[in-house]
């Protein structure tokens, strides 16, 4: 019976052939472990909490699908704990969740990943943590992508098309991705021998509305950009919508690119050039690493996942008559 328990708890020191036999027998019998019995016997809740602050719906749904996949494989349950980061009550809310439900671990999503007060509170409680895209390079367990390198490569694409006036619409001020993507933008300018022009960098909120507002500000410049890198696809969609309203053609008059590769990036017209971020895979991998650290405090690591550029129709050669973008 102990061997069966070790198999279902994904513990080490079980021979592969023995594990395969137990799993085959369980499948044939349609056996499912009893969560309450497992909790009592193992002094665990067999529950993982996903804590997040209202990111775009597509992002959290993709992330959740990966978390669920990893939890189901390990016979764990998942609970979602959305919080309002701007209300400054999120630390107490998540601490209350830990006290009430005693999850074996918590998966944190930006900007919660880098909140010092929250991390200190959870450390006091002895809660196992994993992180998705943390800004802190010392974060030990979770999954991240080299967003800075991805943007640098995206900038090289725009430069190769002849663009020299390239603007950037940033994300949320308190979000790690905002810093990485701005750094990648600056890296791309530097690699092309282009000066950083702060008038071409507009604050944003990772939202459609902030993209639309940013375009209005950029078109008011004496020398408007010929290309815009928006910090995510929602922002890029806002840029493209506002451009259309002004009678501009994408990419004939203005090239636009984003980040994330949401489904709508393929549905926009023209389709959006962007960076593919494998969010579901990141959720699954981060949860797998969290589960490893729950079983063994010295286990689990930070896994870097690959990115890819999705080059589509929203980017093209620099216009020959930039003046018509005014």
Automatic annotation (TrEMBL):
Gene3D superfamilies, per database record: 3.40.50.2300, lambda repressor-like DNA-binding domains
Record-annotated HTH lacI-type domain positions: 1-42
Family matches, as InterPro entries: HTH_LacI, LacI/GalR-like_sensor, Lambda_DNA-bd_dom_sf, Peripla_BP_I
Pfam family, one: LacI
GO MF annotation terms: DNA binding
UniProt entry keywords in alphabetical sequence: DNA-binding, Transcription, Transcription regulation
Alphabetized PANTHER family for the sequence: LACI-RELATED TRANSCRIPTIONAL REPRESSOR (PTHR30146), LACTOSE OPERON REPRESSOR (PTHR30146:SF153)
Name under which the protein is recorded: LacI family DNA-binding transcriptional regulator
